[in-house]
C-alpha cells in the first residue's frame, strides 16, 4: 500500500470513529422503521393507568434511575442472571421501583408492530413523556436512538442515585456528576408532583429528627399530624403516602407551592426551599408562581437527563426482551 493510500485509509477510519462517538439522539430516529412508536407506547400506558393511576409516576422514575447509572441504556431493566447482578436489587430500587410489567407490555406491543427495532432504553424515555402528558403535564419531542446495555451496574445504582436522606450539597453533587445543574435538579424534582412514597423514606422526620427528640421543625404542623397518622411509630414501613398531598395524580406545579407551605414529603424535597441561602430557593419560587415556566424547564431538563451517555450507533444492542440480554 502506498503511504498516500495508508493516510487516506486512516482518515476514513478516523472519520468513522468520530461519527460514531458523536452520534446524537434525534426525534425522528424511528420515523421510517417504526413510525407509530409514540402512539403505541401511549396506548399501552393509557390502559395501565386505568388499572392503577400510579403507573405513570412509576414509569418516569424508572427512566431517572436508568439514566443516573451508566447512562440511559436500559440497564435497570435487566433481571439477575449468570452475568448480571440486577440493579433492581440495589438499595434505591429494591422493593421500591415498579412498572416493569408495563414496560414489558409496551415491548410486546412494539415487537408486534416493528420487531427488533425499538430499544428498551428508548421505551423508558418515551414512557416518561407519555406519563407526564397523560397526567396533565407538558409534552415534548423525545430524542431517540439509544441502544440497550449488555451489562448492569448494581454498585453504581447503590452510589449514584440520590437518597432522600442526603443534604442538598450531596444531591447537587450527584446531579452534577451526570452533567445536570441546579435548574435541572429543581425542575426534575417537580416530578414528585405525582406518585407515592413509603413511610420508611420520610418517617425519620416525624418523631425524632436527627436525634433531637422532636419532629423536623420545617414540617407544617397539620401536615405532620396527618403523616403521623399514616405512619405511626412501629407501624409498617411500607405504607404509602402521596408525594403531592394536594393533587396526587396530576402533573402540575403544586409540588412547589407545597414546599412553600412546608409540605414537602421527603427531606430532599423540602431542602430545595428550606436550605438557607441555597441557589434552589428562587427557582422553586419561580416554578410555584409560574406553571408555564416549570413546564418549559421540566421538558428541557427531561431532554438533558435523557441525553446522559446513551449507547448509539453499533454499541450495545436492541434487546428483544427488556429483562434479558439477547441470547443470554
Ligand atoms: C432529587 C433527588 C431525588 C430523590 C432523593 C428522590 C427520592 C425518591 C423516593 C425516596 C421516592 C419514594 C420511593 C419509595 O418509597 O418506594 C421517590 C419516588 C418518586 N420519584 Fe423521586 N427522587 C429524586 C428525584 C426524582 C426525579 C429526578 C424524578 C423524575 C424525573 C423522580 C420521580 C419520582 C416519582 C414519579 C416517584 C413516585 C414513584 C411511584 O409512585 O412509583 N424523582 N423518589
Ligand atoms: C437521527 O440519527 C440517526 C442515527 O444517528 C441518523 O441516521 C439520522 O439521519 C438522524 N436523523 C436526523 C434527522 O438527523
Ligand atoms: C398508531 O397507533 C394508534 C394507537 O395504537 C392507532 O390508533 C393508529 O391507527 C395507528 N396508526 C398507524 C398508522 O398504524
Ligand atoms: C424487600 O421485601 C422483602 C419482602 O417483604 C424482604 O424480604 C426484603 O428483605 C426486602 N428487601 C429490601 C432490600 O428491603
Ligand atoms: C447494593 O446495595 C444492596 C442493598 O443495600 C446490597 O445488598 C448489595 O450488596 C449492594 N451491591 C453492591 C454491588 O454493592
Ligand atoms: C452534607 O452532608 C455531608 C455528608 O454527610 C457533610 O459532610 C456536609 O457537611 C453536609 N453539608 C451541609 C451543608 O449540611
Ligand atoms: C432520639 O434519638 C436519640 C439518638 O438516637 C436518642 O438518644 C433519644 O433518646 C431519642 N429521643 C426520643 C424521645 O426517643
Ligand atoms: C414502639 O416499640 C418500642 C419497642 O418495641 C416500644 O418501646 C414503644 O413504646 C413503641 N412505641 C409506640 C408509640 O407504640
Ligand atoms: C401549613 O399548610 C397549610 C395548608 O394546608 C397552609 O395554609 C399553612 O400556611 C401552612 N403553614 C406553614 C407554616 O407553612
Ligand atoms: C412565566 O414563564 C414563562 C416562560 O418562562 C414566561 O414567558 C412568562 O413571561 C412568565 N410569566 C410571568 C407572569 O412571569
Ligand atoms: C423563571 O423560569 C423561566 C424558565 O426557566 C425563566 O425563563 C425565567 O427567567 C425565570 N424567571 C425568574 C424571575 O427567575
Automatic annotation (TrEMBL):
<feature type="binding site">
    <location>
        <position position="69"/>
    </location>
    <ligand>
        <name>Ca(2+) 1</name>
    </ligand>
</feature>
<feature type="binding site">
    <location>
        <position position="247"/>
    </location>
    <ligand>
        <name>Ca(2+) 2</name>
    </ligand>
</feature>
<dbReference type="GO" id="GO:0042744">
    <property type="term" value="P:hydrogen peroxide catabolic process"/>
</dbReference>
<feature type="binding site">
    <location>
        <position position="75"/>
    </location>
    <ligand>
        <name>Ca(2+) 1</name>
    </ligand>
</feature>
<keyword id="KW-0106">Calcium</keyword>
<feature type="binding site">
    <location>
        <position position="66"/>
    </location>
    <ligand>
        <name>Ca(2+) 1</name>
    </ligand>
</feature>
<keyword id="KW-0408">Iron</keyword>
<dbReference type="InterPro" id="IPR002016">
    <property type="entry name" value="Haem_peroxidase"/>
</dbReference>
<feature type="disulfide bond">
    <location>
        <begin position="34"/>
        <end position="114"/>
    </location>
</feature>
<keyword id="KW-0575">Peroxidase</keyword>
<dbReference type="InterPro" id="IPR033905">
    <property type="entry name" value="Secretory_peroxidase"/>
</dbReference>
<keyword id="KW-0732">Signal</keyword>
<feature type="binding site">
    <location>
        <position position="244"/>
    </location>
    <ligand>
        <name>Ca(2+) 2</name>
    </ligand>
</feature>
<feature type="binding site">
    <location>
        <position position="87"/>
    </location>
    <ligand>
        <name>Ca(2+) 1</name>
    </ligand>
</feature>
<feature type="binding site" description="axial binding residue">
    <location>
        <position position="192"/>
    </location>
    <ligand>
        <name>heme b</name>
    </ligand>
</feature>
<dbReference type="GO" id="GO:0005576">
    <property type="term" value="C:extracellular region"/>
</dbReference>
<dbReference type="InterPro" id="IPR019794">
    <property type="entry name" value="Peroxidases_AS"/>
</dbReference>
<keyword id="KW-0349">Heme</keyword>
<feature type="disulfide bond">
    <location>
        <begin position="199"/>
        <end position="231"/>
    </location>
</feature>
<feature type="signal peptide">
    <location>
        <begin position="1"/>
        <end position="23"/>
    </location>
</feature>
<dbReference type="GO" id="GO:0046872">
    <property type="term" value="F:metal ion binding"/>
</dbReference>
<dbReference type="InterPro" id="IPR010255">
    <property type="entry name" value="Haem_peroxidase_sf"/>
</dbReference>
<feature type="binding site">
    <location>
        <position position="71"/>
    </location>
    <ligand>
        <name>Ca(2+) 1</name>
    </ligand>
</feature>
<feature type="binding site">
    <location>
        <position position="193"/>
    </location>
    <ligand>
        <name>Ca(2+) 2</name>
    </ligand>
</feature>
<feature type="active site" description="Proton acceptor">
    <location>
        <position position="65"/>
    </location>
</feature>
<keyword id="KW-0964">Secreted</keyword>
<feature type="binding site">
    <location>
        <position position="252"/>
    </location>
    <ligand>
        <name>Ca(2+) 2</name>
    </ligand>
</feature>
<protein>
    <recommendedName>
        <fullName>Peroxidase</fullName>
        <ecNumber>1.11.1.7</ecNumber>
    </recommendedName>
</protein>
<feature type="disulfide bond">
    <location>
        <begin position="120"/>
        <end position="322"/>
    </location>
</feature>
<dbReference type="GO" id="GO:0140825">
    <property type="term" value="F:lactoperoxidase activity"/>
</dbReference>
<keyword id="KW-1015">Disulfide bond</keyword>
<dbReference type="GO" id="GO:0002215">
    <property type="term" value="P:defense response to nematode"/>
</dbReference>
<keyword id="KW-0560">Oxidoreductase</keyword>
<dbReference type="GO" id="GO:0004601">
    <property type="term" value="F:peroxidase activity"/>
</dbReference>
<comment type="similarity">
    <text>Belongs to the peroxidase family. Classical plant (class III) peroxidase subfamily.</text>
</comment>
<feature type="binding site">
    <location>
        <position position="73"/>
    </location>
    <ligand>
        <name>Ca(2+) 1</name>
    </ligand>
</feature>
<comment type="similarity">
    <text>Belongs to the peroxidase family. Ascorbate peroxidase subfamily.</text>
</comment>
<dbReference type="GO" id="GO:0020037">
    <property type="term" value="F:heme binding"/>
</dbReference>
<dbReference type="GO" id="GO:0006979">
    <property type="term" value="P:response to oxidative stress"/>
</dbReference>
<feature type="domain" description="Plant heme peroxidase family profile">
    <location>
        <begin position="24"/>
        <end position="326"/>
    </location>
</feature>
<dbReference type="InterPro" id="IPR019793">
    <property type="entry name" value="Peroxidases_heam-ligand_BS"/>
</dbReference>
<dbReference type="InterPro" id="IPR000823">
    <property type="entry name" value="Peroxidase_pln"/>
</dbReference>
Amino acid at each position: 500500500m502506498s503511504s498516500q493510500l495508508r493516510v487516506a485509509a486512516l482518515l476514513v477510519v478516523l472519520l468513522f470513529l468520530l461519527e460514531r462517538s458523536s452520534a446524537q439522539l434525534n426525534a425522528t430516529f424511528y420515523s421510517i422503521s417504526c413510525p407509530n412508536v409514540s402512539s403505541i407506547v401511549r396506548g399501552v400506558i393509557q390502559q395501565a393507568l386505568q388499572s392503577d393511576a400510579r403507573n405513570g409516576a412509576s414509569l418516569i422514575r424508572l427512566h431517572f434511575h436508568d439514566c443516573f447509572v451508566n447512562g440511559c441504556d436500559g440497564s435497570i431493566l435487566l433481571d439477575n442472571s449468570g452475568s448480571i447482578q440486577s440493579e433492581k436489587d440495589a438499595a434505591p430500587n429494591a422493593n421500591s421501583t415498579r412498572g416493569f410489567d408495563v414496560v414489558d407490555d409496551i415491548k410486546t406491543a412494539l415487537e408486534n408492530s416493528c420487531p427488533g427495532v425499538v430499544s428498551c432504553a428508548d421505551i423508558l424515555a418515551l414512557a416518561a413523556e407519555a406519563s407526564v402528558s397523560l397526567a396533565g403535564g407538558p409534552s415534548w419531542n423525545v430524542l431517540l436512538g439509544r441502544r440497550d446495555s449488555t451489562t448492569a451496574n448494581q454498585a453504581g445504582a447503590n452510589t449514584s442515585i440520590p437518597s432522600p436522606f442526603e443534604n442538598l450539597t450531596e444531591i447537587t453533587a450527584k446531579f452534577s456528576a451526570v452533567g445536570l445543574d441546579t435548574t435541572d435538579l429543581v425542575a426534575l424534582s417537580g416530578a414528585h408532583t405525582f406518585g407515592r412514597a413509603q413511610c420508611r423514606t420520610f418517617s425519620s422526620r416525624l418523631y425524632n429528627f436527627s436525634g433531637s427528640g422532636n419532629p423536623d421543625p420545617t414540617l407544617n404542623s397539620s401536615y405532620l399530624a396527618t403523616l403521623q397518622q399514616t405512619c405511626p411509630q412501629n407501624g409498617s414501613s411500607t405504607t404509602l403516602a402521596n408525594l403531592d398531598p394536594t393533587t396526587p395524580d396530576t402533573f402540575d406545579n403544586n409540588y412547589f407551592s407545597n414546599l412553600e407551605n412546608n409540605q414537602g414529603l421527603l427531606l430532599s424535597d423540602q431542602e430545595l426551599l428550606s436550605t438557607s441561602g441555597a441557589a434552589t430557593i428562587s427557582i422553586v419560587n419561580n416554578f410555584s408562581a409560574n406553571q408555564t415556566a416549570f413546564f418549559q424547564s421540566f421538558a428541557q431538563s427531561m431532554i438533558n437527563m435523557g441525553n446522559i451517555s446513551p449507547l448509539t450507533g453499533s454499541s450495545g444492542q436492541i434487546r428483544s426482551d427488556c429483562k434479558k440480554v439477547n441470547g443470554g
